[in-house]
Amino acid sequence: MLQSSCQYVPFDKEVLGLPYIHTKNLSFSFSEKAEILAVDQADLGIQEGKITAIIGESGSGKSTLLRLIYGLLEPLQGEVRYKGWLVPTRKDKLIPGHQDMKLVSQGFDDLNTFANVWDNVASQLPNTNLEAKHNKTAAILKRLRIDHLAKKRIADISGGEKQRVAICRALVNDPKVLLMDEPFNQVDASFRDTLQQDIKQIVVDTGLTIILVSHDPTEVLALADDLIVMKDGRILDQGHPRDLYERPTNPYTAQLLAKSNILSSSEAQLLDIQGGSTIIIHQEWVSVHPSDSAHQFTLVDIRFRGFYYELVVSSGELHLHAITTDPVNMQVGAAVSITIQQYISL
């Protein structure tokens, strides 16, 4: 349990190696009897000046973990520490939330719907220096590319534009840590990458630490410096996005990040693959070829995915998914052969 908001861990040998933000044995339940844990014994480390993404399917505990880090929720057990200090919670302060952190939620509840964009952002700054207030407001609106919306009411702008306003409000006071819950949900796909790169540049320029929650790994693979994978309240994996993609340590991570083919040992033997109890084959590791001879597989579906196609092949006993950019001379129902370029054995 968290004790006092001012409790501090001395910088002994153990603490010197601790991350900027870390949790230890952190658990939380929305039920008084703690029958179901929304977060279950979570141990994690967040590095300073990096973007960390917490990913997982809906109901995995991502948003709950984010609120525990911020101090909005009281842990059932365990602790959250920021720079060695315990993060205060509702029992420690009248207004919950760490003073060095800002949280941008999904609902835009903090926005004044009938005020304009400028006033929504400027209201976060004191009136002690009006010139500085004006300059900081103008600078952050320009940085997030919404200065042209300054005089528009929140009620009259899109969801993606509201998201940028919410981020501006959070950043205008120069927090040390920015927490974001599904920040790209309402941003149009055509503008999503621009917003992500703007956020990434802010981190480079200011040293801001960002922790964001997403259910869509395609949003964060190119953005995050570190990924935390959650399922059923537990942290299954943490590491660099490329490491987790190329060398997942469990089937859930592989399925979440790469939509991999997950095979049992008996299914893998049908492909002459010998290994552990689970075999992981990413879709891009499967090559599909037209075949005129006796065939093992049939092409049962071709799914257009934009710049690539997803091919579904079946042998009756086994279904595999592959991707290609050019399914020339292949039609649904055709006989095909496959080549497995690589796989992971667990």
Describe the protein's architecture and organization.
With 346 residues, the chain is of the alpha+beta class. The protein has 2 domains: 13-100 and 175-255, Rossmann fold, CATH 3.40.50; 262-345, OB fold (Dihydrolipoamide Acetyltransferase, E2P) (Beta Barrel), CATH 2.40.50.140. 25% of the residues lie in helices and 28% in strands. It is built from 10 helices and 18 strands. It has helices spanning 13-16, 62-70, 117-122, 130-143, 159-171, 189-206, 217-220, 241-246, 251-258, 265-269; strands at 21-28, 39-46, 51-55, 77-82, 85-86, 101-104, 177-181, 209-214, 226-231, 234-239, 261-264, 278-281, 286-290, 297-304, 309-314, 319-324, 335-340, 344-345. The strands form 4 sheets. The protein has a 6-stranded mixed beta sheet, with helices on both faces. Strand 9 and strand 10 (234-239) form a beta hairpin. The longest helix has 18 residues, at 189-206. The two termini are 36 Å apart.
